[in-house]
Amino acid sequence: NELNKMNIAIVGTGYVGLVTGTCFAETGVDVTCVDVNADKIANLQKGIIPIYEPGLEDMVLRNVKAGRLHFTTSLESCLDNVDIVFSAVGTPPDEDGSADLRYVLEVARTIGANMKKYTLVVTKSTVPVGTARKVKAAIREELEKRGESIDFDVASNPEFLKEGNAIDDFMSPDRVVVGVESERAKKLMTKLYKPFMLVNFRVIFMDIPSAEMTKYAANSMLATRISFMNDIANLCELVGADVNMVRDGIGSDSRIGRKFLYPGCGYGGSCFPKDVKALIKTAEQNGYSMQVLKAVEDVNENQKGILFEKLVKVFNGDLKGKTVALWGLAFKPGTDDMREAPALVLIEKLKQSGCNVRAYDPAAMDESRRRIGESVYYAHDMYDAALDADALILVTEWKEFRLPTWGVIKKAMKQPVVLDGRNIYDGDELQEMGFVYHCIGR
Ligand code: UGA
């Protein structure tokens, strides 16, 4: 009914769930966020946000205050009121790299066992093609156990948020992809996304397997661009070309475009590495081999070691006892996330070679402590990190690293060596100041 206020539930208050729930609440929808983790829910009720995401905290507090955003540990208790349940629970990789659907199917069974009226069950977690079918079967099975025949639909609505930019991505997306198999589901999803239509984007409706596939294809394509550019950058170094110019040269072809063509020290994060692996796996299970993606993975593994190799060259293999300043620990700026972060690979190699590491990151220091303890020295700021260092390595291109006072850095360091893993500095300027400077692909 068009006159009724929309009520939705989001299961899983991780990164995707919390951003999704909060942004929908912002449009006036009544949102209940559900999580089995009681501490997390208790904290959220007190306004304590479990993740670092620019703008999220304000938005959560505002919507809680307005009475549109609620937190609970009980999915059962909110099923009576909601039209749509989004499932945004985790799908951690199995030992063999395929997504573990345990939580996704658990949510489906809870819904099947407790729903009392028509419900649209939307999967937002990144799940392999065919998962919606399993969700549907699980709900149906639970309904049959109860001897009920309540109508329901499943849908797939993959998420394309970038960490650090999630609110903007959600509020003004390039597109929203929705896989449905009934008119009723399509109508509900159209209504829910209507407030966003004002900013000129499309909801692309398609069948469910295509929507599931779109998510993996998008991330795999982006990962492919990065590995391709890393390959080109490495070759540029060998033939005396400058990858910055090559990027500009090819990016101006509108068929190629300028975005996601930045070489660096490898892609990390919770998505690209996992999704590339999962798609390779899905192909295998279907008797097909994703040759390109296998190469994308290999190149990325190699690229995570590239800064270390450059360091070895600078010091002719003699790294024992050297002090290395490390700027950036998070897998990218704007987040404290260190999953699959290139910095972790670098630190491991540096420690193995007998280096002392002085690390600084604007957001990820606590996360780093959790992961690798005190195996590195955590500096007070970027200048403290450079103190007595034989080399400084930029790993994550945080804005505050962009314009250092090089005079101060040079005085602080033992040897003026800078390795720029993201090509953000002016090499000529640094060399004029007496620094040894290396970057990627030039
Ligand atoms: C990525 C996608 O960009 C999102 O669209 C998607 O929703 C998300 O995964 C997901 O599946 O949930 P995210 O992992 O947050 O988002 O981060 P990105 O900004 O895409 O960066 C990924 C990695 O690629 C970073 O390590 C970054 O440093 C690296 N990168 C990115 C490059 O090395 N070069 C580039 O040109 C761009």
The tally of strands reads 14
CATH class annotation of the largest domain? Alpha Beta
| Count of discrete domains | 3
How far is the N terminus from the C terminus? 61 Å
Mean pLDDT: 95
* Whole-angstrom Rg: 24 Å
The SS-based structural class is alpha/beta
Judging by the overall fold, what is the CATH architecture of the largest domain?
Answer: 3-Layer(aba) Sandwich
Bound molecules: uridine-5'-diphosphate-glucuronic acid
CATH homologous superfamily label of the largest domain? NAD(P)-binding Rossmann-like Domain
Please work out how many helical segments DSSP would assign. 18
Low-confidence segments, given as residue ranges, are none
Domain UDP-glucose/GDP-mannose dehydrogenase C-terminal: 325-427
Function: Catalyzes the conversion of UDP-glucose into UDP-glucuronate, one of the precursors of teichuronic acid.
Family: Belongs to the UDP-glucose/GDP-mannose dehydrogenase family.
Binding site for NAD(+): 35, 40, 91, 126, 163, 274, 339
Description of the molecule:
The protein has 442 residues and is of the alpha/beta class. It has 3 domains: 7-206, NAD(P)-binding Rossmann-like Domain (Rossmann fold, 3-Layer(aba) Sandwich), CATH 3.40.50.720; 216-302, 3-Layer(aba) Sandwich (Rossmann fold); 304-438, 3-Layer(aba) Sandwich (Rossmann fold). It has 18 helices and 14 strands. It has helices at residues 15-26, 38-45, 56-65, 75-78, 102-114, 131-146, 166-171, 183-197, 208-239, 243-251, 272-285, 291-303, 306-314, 342-352, 365-372, 382-386, 406-412, 427-432; strands at residues 7-11, 30-34, 69-72, 84-87, 119-123, 152-156, 175-179, 202-206, 323-327, 356-360, 377-378, 391-394, 417-420, 436-438. It has a 6-stranded parallel β-sheet, with helices on both faces. The protein has a 6-stranded parallel β-sheet with strand order 11-10-9-12-13-14. α1 (15-26) crosses α3 (56-65) and α9 (208-239) packs across α12. It is elongated and about 75 Å long. The N and C termini lie far apart (61 Å). The model has no long low-confidence stretch (mean pLDDT 95). The structure holds uridine-5'-diphosphate-glucuronic acid. The site of uridine-5'-diphosphate-glucuronic acid has 20 residues, from α9. It is an enzyme of class 1 (oxidoreductase). The active site is at residue 271. Keywords: NAD, Oxidoreductase. It holds the Pfam family UDPG_MGDP_dh_C.
